[in-house]
Amino acid sequence: MTDQANRSPTLALNEPADSEVLTIGEIFWRDHQVWLQEQGYTLRPRYRPGWVPSWQGTDKDCWDVEDGQGLSRAVIIDARRLRDGADVCLKKIKTKIFPFEHGLSTLLGSGPLSEDPQNHSVPILESLQVPDDESLVIIVMPLLREYCQPRFDTFGEAVDFFSQIFEGVKFLHDRNIAHRDLNATNIMMDGSKMFPDGYHPQYPKMNRDFYSGRARFYTRTQRPPKYHIIDFGLSRQYDTRDPPPLEIPIVGGDKTVPEFRFTKRGKPPKPCDPFPTDIYYLGNLILREFVEGIPFVNYSNRLKGFEFMRDLAQDMTAKNPSDRPTIDEVIERFAAIRKSLNFWKLRSRVVKMRGFPDPRRPFRHWYLRIGYILRCIPAIPSYQRACQ
């Protein structure tokens, strides 16, 4: 094994760190695997002491086998809870760098607030203090997946998504909490009901064992999911919003926020109220992911039929923060939009603006929709109704 002390301190995060092909970010998890198992969580074979890559000595490549699937982010790893076999996610929090993240995450994700149905913050199942580093805490969360994978099947499913996320942000703002980084990667979905047999944590389209094919799943209409807001590393809670709090802008995933831009003379942006910025984040997510697409990225894959959200999203992304609606006004306006959508619109299939459509899909789609109608399955899913 390569002597870690002789390695360059500028080694890239995803560069192999030793002969076992683990990255530097993965080494931490391997070195703490025994301790984590003592706490009740087991990692995949790749991160267990003594692991030998299964593809060595074979004609297979690392990406062909399960233990060749590394981490997409070094601070987060999937695990399995030993007492019940549940799939969970572990995240490292460096408390010296993000001093508020652990406190806000546990405030929202555990205890009395976590039981509120309007709370869409990610649940925190447990917190673990790393024994050899007092500034490092590991939080345990349910295993979640991208909010848009699999794709939305109907407009009713997308309407449910908008409703849940607006509700979740209102829950935060009502408690004077600004998230400050509401981009598409920080909104995720609990897919446990949609994927009854599970899925691979690094390649969610595949089965849990990775090699036996694609994961079987239900539509959101059949098994409504709950959407969650994650990553409170930049979030803050304030004693009051009168007067509005002023924060020096911290650029997160969405770098298009108008108030974060330097002035024409090159001066840094002034402190600003983070709550209208949250509204911008949400509006821009709707524009980029549903209405207009992202130029030069997924512009050609933008979706048809979401023009009903355009006016609201454009107002939410107004250049002047004072011109943006509050989250209460967003919810009020969205309620009117939701009410205006007729039965056929809500049941209709979501399709991409470009591409080569399969002429058989509309027939398959309406065959299933008619079955839902006959079984009185609502056009707009509701995870709360499904839990009753």
From TrEMBL:
<dbReference type="GO" id="GO:0044773">
    <property type="term" value="P:mitotic DNA damage checkpoint signaling"/>
</dbReference>
<dbReference type="GO" id="GO:0004674">
    <property type="term" value="F:protein serine/threonine kinase activity"/>
</dbReference>
<feature type="domain" description="Protein kinase">
    <location>
        <begin position="61"/>
        <end position="337"/>
    </location>
</feature>
<keyword id="KW-0418">Kinase</keyword>
<dbReference type="Pfam" id="PF00069">
    <property type="entry name" value="Pkinase"/>
</dbReference>
<dbReference type="InterPro" id="IPR000719">
    <property type="entry name" value="Prot_kinase_dom"/>
</dbReference>
<protein>
    <submittedName>
        <fullName>Kinase-like domain-containing protein</fullName>
    </submittedName>
</protein>
<keyword id="KW-0808">Transferase</keyword>
<dbReference type="InterPro" id="IPR011009">
    <property type="entry name" value="Kinase-like_dom_sf"/>
</dbReference>
<dbReference type="GO" id="GO:0005737">
    <property type="term" value="C:cytoplasm"/>
</dbReference>
<dbReference type="GO" id="GO:0005634">
    <property type="term" value="C:nucleus"/>
</dbReference>
<dbReference type="GO" id="GO:0005524">
    <property type="term" value="F:ATP binding"/>
</dbReference>
